[in-house]
Each structure stands twice: as C-alpha cells, then as structure tokens.
Specification:
By secondary structure, this protein is mostly helical. It contains 6 helices and no strands. It has a domain at about 5-115: Helix Hairpins. The longest helix is centred in the middle third of the chain and has 59 residues, at about 55-115. Pfam families: Snf7 (PF03357).
C-alpha cells in the first residue's frame, strides 16, 4: 500500500485514493477478526483459571498470565484499528473533496463553453435590439389597424344620431301608454220586466179550470 504514496506512475497516483481506501478497510477487517479470536482465547484462559483456582494453583496462575498477555495484544490491535480508521476517514474526506473539486471544475468549464463570447455588454445590446424590434412591430400593427379614407367616422355625428334614436324610442313608448289608457264605460241601466196584467192572470186561471174539468170528465165525476 505504501508504495502508492511514495512512487508509481501518473495512473497509479490517480487511482491511489481508491486503492488506499480499499486496502485500509481490508486491513481493519483483518484486525477486527484477529481481535475477536483473541477475545475467545481470553475467555478460555479465564475459565481455566477459575476451574483450577483451588485444585491447581500453578495451572490457574499460568492461565491468568496468558490471559493478561492476550488482553494486551487485544489492546494493541484496538489502537491499530483506531489509527487506521482515523486515516481511512481522512482519506475518504480528502477523496470526496477531490471529486467535488473535479465536478466543480467540469461545471465551470461547461458554463464557460456555453457562454462562449458572451459578456454583459453584448447581452445588453441584444436586449436593446429585441426591445427595438418589439416597438417597431407594435407601430406596424397600429398602422395596419387604422381605417382608410371613407371609413373614417365622425364620433360627434354618431352621438347625435344615437340621441335622436333614443328620443324617438321614448316618444313611441309615451304614445303607446296614452292609447292604452281609456275612460271608464258608463254603467248600463238594468230594466226590470213589466208586471203581469190582470188579464193574463185570468187567462191562466181559465186554462186551469178547463184542464180540471176535462180530468173530472175522464174520471166520470
């Protein structure tokens, strides 16, 4: 790994951060596995010491000694892992900054290419040209929209004609209103029928008497 930091061609230097990150992660993983294995041995030696603490003190003492040695090795490995992780974080951060700068550089290059020969003065000139053409277009549109020759109409004359039409309409409405209003009709005198005369009553009585006599004759009375 260290050969990448102190030598190599341009391609190797370009790939250096990525390779360094990969190797550091692999080495940290190896150390963690080694630490886990030593931790298992520590537990085994602790069990041996506890088992022989009264029956075989020499064996128990030897187990404790191995346990202390294993714990010291584990501590060294943990310190190494901590150092490697610190270095890994620093390289990853530096590599991220490098990639960010590359992206920003590419972005600046793209913007420069898009802008080309543009500058503020040219942009202002272009905007002035656009505004000038818009104004010209509006003037042309107004000129085309104006009525020609005999199509010109006097607004005052139109107002007078409109007022005359309104007055005529008002007069017609007033005339219709007067015709609709009629004087009330005179009440019709009711005529009562003449009272019947005495002669008519006598004729009616004679007819009744005659009918009565005919009925009596039919019945043999």
């Amino acid at each position: 790994m260290w050969g990448y930091f102190f030598g190599g061609n341009a391609k190797q230097k370009k790939e250096l951060p990525k390779k360094a990150i990969v190797e550091l992660r692999e080495h940290i993983s190896t150390l963690n596995k080694k630490s886990a294995f030593l931790e298992t041995q520590v537990q085994e030696q602790d069990a041996i010491a506890r088992k022989n603490v009264t029956s075989n003190k020499n064996l128990a003492k030897m187990a404790l000694k191995k346990k202390k040695k294993l714990e010291a090795d584990i501590l060294k490995i943990e310190n190494q892992v901590e150092s490697l992780e610190t270095q890994l974080n620093a390289i990853e951060s530096a590599n991220l900054n490098l990639e960010t700068m590359k992206a920003m550089k590419q972005g600046a290059k793209a913007m420069k290419q898009m802008h080309g020969d543009f500058n503020v003065d040219k942009v202002d000139q272009t905007m002035d040209d656009i505004r000038e053409q818009v104004e010209l277009s509006e003037e042309i549109s107004d000129a085309i929209s104006r009525p020609l020759g005999n199509d010109l109409v006097d607004e005052d004359e139109l107002d007078e004609e409109l007022a005359a039409l309104q007055q005529e309409e008002l007069d017609n409405k007033m005339t219709d209103t007067k015709q609709a209003v009629k004087p009330p009709a005179e009440p019709v005198k009711s005529q009562l029928p003449d009272a019947p005369t005495g002669k008519v009553q006598e004729e009616e009585e004679d007819e009744d008497e005659k009918a009565l006599r005919e009925l009596q004759a039919e019945m043999g009375m």
